[in-house]
């Protein structure tokens, strides 16, 4: 089945190379999308409490599992410790809430969503400082949180653990202070933001890279606008070199962007809530890019970060926020 190509993680667990991303999907959209994705052969689902759709995803998973249409061991479910709960004492309670929402006994991979932590009020709204910016919690301690993450593996709530949005220095620091090394670092990675230094370092340390926003997060402009953030969002599907390579293989630009990612040994989690595009994004295992084409795509790097968390107004004040020096727009 197309969706069952894997990358073996540093703990021997096999992770499907393509997963479905679920950010910015309403409950209704996500139910249709997860149904269509499972039909198409996806077994890897990337979610997070922040996306607000774990309950809806859980409903679909339960239907499929109860009907015997899929076995739990064939699914690879990823969720994350949110930035509002990035503290040691919150880890167990928060994963248990996700598991209850997803109607699962364990997740296949649990990630620290961001290297930074933000504060919320009792009602769940962000705490704001005197300037009206989100209040950050500067006590974030990755090593201490990681001890609690490691306990999740020991007590069977997560098969693997990892991080997301961590810089090279943050991964290096964690590697020096852990018993279980992170299985993956989930980062923004696409032809315009290749982060070669970080990617090469993680690979050398046997920390797999998962590419989020692999198609350039085409829907983020609307999300940013809702938060009062103006950013140019380049259309990766319209890059002449990408279109040219796609035409040469009879494939779509999206398929070329995804094939390039997995050809460079990286896992990709494209989001779609459209059944046709979901199938298209998985149908990338019947062609191969030439080394010349791979080089052409490598040369496109522009250090353009699309998902820069500017929608978390004020987060750049956090000492573990490392994106600020990488803005190009
Ligand atoms: N760890 C983190 O901090 C973090 C941050 C961002 C994202 N993520 C994860 O990564 C996933 C993917 O990233 P993303 O959602 O930012 O962006 P993305 O996957 O790069 O792009 C998704 C957008 O592309 C469109 N699309 C999908 N397939 C297409 C195709 N074949 N042709 C044309 N358009 C296509 C989708 O629209 P349709 O739905 O209409 O097809 C959607 O607007 C997220 O959903 C989330 O699970 C994680």
UniProtKB/TrEMBL annotation:
A molecular function GO annotation: oxidoreductase activity
Coiled coil, from the record: none
Record: residues binding substrate: 113
Site (Lowers pKa of active site Tyr): residue numbering on this chain: 80
Domain of life where this protein originates: Eukaryota
Active site: 51
Record carries keyword Nucleus: no
All copies of domain NADP-dependent oxidoreductase, residue ranges: 18-300
Keywords per UniProt: NADP, Oxidoreductase
Family: Belongs to the aldo/keto reductase family.
The name this protein goes by in its record: NADP-dependent oxidoreductase domain-containing protein
Encoding gene (name): Dwil\GK14190
